[in-house]
Amino acid sequence: MKIRDLFSAGKPLFSFEFFPPKTDAGMANLEKTIRELADLNPAYVSVTYGAGGSTREKTVSLVTRIQKELGLCAMAHFTCVGSGKTEMAEVLDRLVDGGIENLIVLRGDPPAGAEIFQQPADGFGHASDLVRFVRGRFGDRVCLAAAGYPEGHVECRSLEADMAHLGVKVKAGADFLITQLFFDNRHYFDFVKRARAAGIGVPIVPGLMPIGNLSQIERFTKMCGATIPPVLFAELDRCRNDPAAVAALGVAHATAQAVELLHGGAPGIHFYTLNQSPASRVILTALRAARLTG
């Protein structure tokens, strides 16, 4: 099943993102999380490539297992990091031959210890180049997603320039977009408005990360350039040493975000789960109880 075809039904699509753990204990926890979320019947799930492409083999294995053994539509992350065209082609062939029809194509973050992204020898320096490469190799056999940055990419703070880059990715062959995390819905709605004005017509799915740990989310926002609304941050900071209160506020805020986004026409919600099920499960259950899921 190609994800792009699911949007035509006009119902919101809900999906979850997982990352390949580095330890056996982490894998056991992830498998538990996937089982707990699978019965919510997500439209699809995605599996990240790991920082600097470090978990490539685990990504290939995990995404194919999820699709074959659990029957979930699975999307693999694929990045420019650390590989030339020949190696990329080999991994892509393995994914597609293994039944994976959906890929989210990204430039990727610099490897650990590197401050800036370095284009690999015989590789690519931009996500648009990789989108074009994958589309040229497989044509319409695959569905391609790409990333969007409502507050601008951390390396491109000009919203106009960032939108121009986005247009190149879509013209290269991206079928839909998933946004970077954000905590103020105005960023998403403004982003969609600017994208439509720029002639970008593909579905733009908002990505939400329920806040469960303030120190953790502070690191994430610093890395990706997202911001936390001052009122929200003040309350999170006030209960910083009360994990249960932080998690409860995180779920409440993400639920309110999701409700407003769906009322505003978002084509679904992509949950960044951090391999944990409770927050995403509570939010999606609440949305369905409120009949906001189509």
Q: In whole angstroms, how far apart are the ends?
A: 19 Å
Topology, number of strands? 9
Mean pLDDT metric: 91
Contiguous helical run count: 11
Gross morphology is globular
CATH class: Alpha Beta
Low-confidence stretches: none
What does the secondary structure layout of this molecule look like, with pairings?
Elements: H1 3-6, E1 13-18, H2 24-38, E2 44-47, H3 56-70, E3 74-79, H4 85-97, E4 102-106, H5 127-138, E5 143-148, H6 159-172, E6 176-179, H7 185-197, E7 204-205, E8 207-208, H8 214-224, H9 230-238, H10 243-263, E9 268-272, H11 278-289
Parallel strand pairs: 1-2, 1-9, 2-3, 3-4, 4-5, 5-6, 6-7, 8-9
Tell me briefly what this model is:
By secondary structure, this protein is α/β, with parallel strands linked by helices. The protein is built from 11 helices and 9 strands. Helix 5 runs parallel beside helix 6 and helix 10 crosses helix 11.
Can you describe what's shown?
This protein is an alpha/beta fold and 294 residues long. The chain has one domain: TIM Barrel (Alpha-Beta Barrel), CATH 3.20.20. The chain has helices spanning 3-6, 24-38, 56-70, 85-97, 127-138, 159-172, 185-197, 214-224, 230-238, 243-263, 278-289; strands spanning 13-18, 44-47, 74-79, 102-106, 143-148, 176-179, 204-205, 207-208, 268-272. A nine-stranded parallel sheet has the order 7-6-5-4-3-2-1-9-8. Helix 5 (127-138) runs parallel beside helix 6 (159-172) and helix 10 (243-263) packs across helix 11. The mean pLDDT is 91.
